[in-house]
Amino acid sequence: MDILVFFLEAIFAAGFGFAVGYLYHRNITEKKLKSADERAADIIAKAEAQAQQKEVEAKEEALKLRNEAENDINRKRREIDKQEERFQQRQESLERRLENLEKKERNLNKRQSVVDRKANEIEKIHEQRLAELERISQMTRDEAKDELLKMVEQDTRQDMTRIIRQVEADTKAEADRKAREIIVLAMQRVASDQVSETVVSAVPLPSDEMKGRIIGRQGRNIRAFENATGVDVIVDDTPEAIILSGFDPVRREVARLAMSRLITDGRIHPARIEKLVQKAQEEVEQTIKEAGEQAIYDAGVRRLHPEIIKLLGRLQFRTSYGQNQREHAIEASRLAVVIANEVGGDVEICREGALLHDIGKAVDHEVEGPHAIIGADIAKRYGVSAPVVNCIASHHHEIEQESLEAVIVEVADAISGARPGARRESLENYVKRIKALEDIAHSFKGVEEAFAIQAGREVRIIVRPEEVDDYEAIKMSKDIARQVEENLQYPGQIKVTVVRETRAVDYAK
């Protein structure tokens, strides 16, 4: 019974607690809902107020934009009105000008009709006068025109000849004066020696008995020597000497050294010959290298390829008309430097171009073609600059000269070769050159006589005056000089003089 009562009390207490909790939670929830409703109403009120504010601002902005648009439209309308007004004014101005032009055109048409009528009258008068002139002169219009043209041509040619002579005389006087100053200055500052040209070398012998030892049994020694050196050994009646003959000067020098060593040593047999020839070749190669290095040092040129230096050294054994080509190259380089300083050329290009201008002569017996073109190809192959290559290739006019420096190199080459005592020429070549000069002169029409004088330094041509006038004489001298340059090789320069003489002869009876 007590348990039942306790159990009923517990149930009652639990139900009471549940009812109290329920009522508490319900009260709390109602308060929260009320608070949320109040906040929601507050937010809605604020939102409605903001919306009303934004609507007012939007209306104000729209009104502002509308006012600005209306102002802009009014401004553009005013501008359009102004432009229409200016356009109207221009149109009226153009219409007035068009009316004026139409009036002027009508006036011009009237004047043109008057001019045409006058021109027709003048043409009739002109034809009448021409007919009268033809009747009086007994010549047609074409004949009179030809006669007049002949007279004008004759007068013009005479005037042209006189002007050409005057200009040439003035130019030549000034050029000669300046050229003399430059050339004399260059020649005064440069001096050099000379050697004689030869294709043989003489080797002295201690006695004529040595000739038999050089020849050897059945000629084996001399054959071995010629095979090893590539030169001919001439053993003749020349007392106490033998002759080494060869076109290649380097080979000839090797042969001379080897033969001198054999004669000094006394042991002459094929094995010894080969050994001494090999040693002589090494010595000559070293000599060539040293000669090339000395040449660039004397000329003041720097940074050349070793192969070009070696070719410069080979020029030590090359001569032209008796002039040593290595010394000629150094001398031309110095002359070119002096001339370049005087006339404002590039000194370094002239220095290097003049030093290398005959480099092709070191191998021209091995390679076909003019030595200037050969030298230019070699220089280009070993990295020489283009202006210097042009100086080398054009110093004999095989190609066109492209710069002042190329002309300076040509002048320096001519001065070095043409100065007194620099070169000599064999009698046979001299006679051939003289004859060739006269033959070239005789090949021109109107030439009566031609004489090569002053040892071939001048060719004097006598022309027939009835066939060659003064202008043709001037032109002939230039043409002959150009043909001589193209067809002949000669040291220095050749003067071409054309003489046209008219003689009037009469007899008193």
Give an overview of the whole structure.
- It is built from 14 helices and eight strands.
- With about 500 residues, it is mainly alpha-helical.
- The protein has a three-stranded antiparallel β-sheet with strand order 1-3-2, with helices on one face. The chain has a three-stranded mixed β-sheet with strand order 6-7-8, with helices on one face. The protein has a two-stranded antiparallel ribbon with strand order 4-5.
- α2 (about 140-190) packs across α8 (about 325-345).
Question: What characteristic shape results from the CA principal axes?
Answer: flat
Profile the largest sheet.
3 strands, antiparallel
Q: Kindly state the percentage of residues in helix.
A: 55-70%
**Helix count, DSSP H or I runs of 4 or more residues:** 14
The assembly state of the depicted protein chains is single chain
- H/E element order: HHEHHEEHHHEEHHHHHHEEHE
Strand content: 5-15%
Give Rg in angstroms: 55 Å
Average per-residue pLDDT, rounded, comes to: 81
Total beta strands = 8
Instruction: Indicate the structural class.
Output: mainly alpha
User: What order do the strands of the largest sheet run in, or round the barrel if closed?
Assistant: 1-3-2
N- and C-termini, Cα separation: 209 Å
Enumerate the spans where pLDDT stays under 50 for 5 or more consecutive residues: 191-197
